[in-house]
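Materials and Methods. Structural model of Cell division protein FtsL. The 100-residue sequence of Cell division protein FtsL from Erysipelothrix larvae was retrieved and submitted for structure prediction as follows.
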Amino acid sequence: MAKIVKVRKKRTLRLGSVAALTLFLALAFSFITVIFVRSENQRMLREIDSINNKIAEVTAQNQDVARQVNELSSYARVVQMAQEGGLEFNHNNRLYVKGN
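The predicted structure was written out as tokens:
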């Protein structure tokens, strides 16, 4: 009786299976990248909004301080403080400086 010999074939990678695997991995990577980029963009947008809100607050504070400075440095207030300090107002000794 003759022996039955099973011949084992070597499995080789086919070009189609390699291409399909590469395509699948590329799609998976692109989906993960898209999700990451979108979440990063959302985080940056929230940070930008936060910074814009802080800028608006600081701008409002600066305007308030500028208004207070203008009130405190008005000519009438300076004259009043000078008179309270004992200084006299001499009309003959005035100098006017033209602004821009």
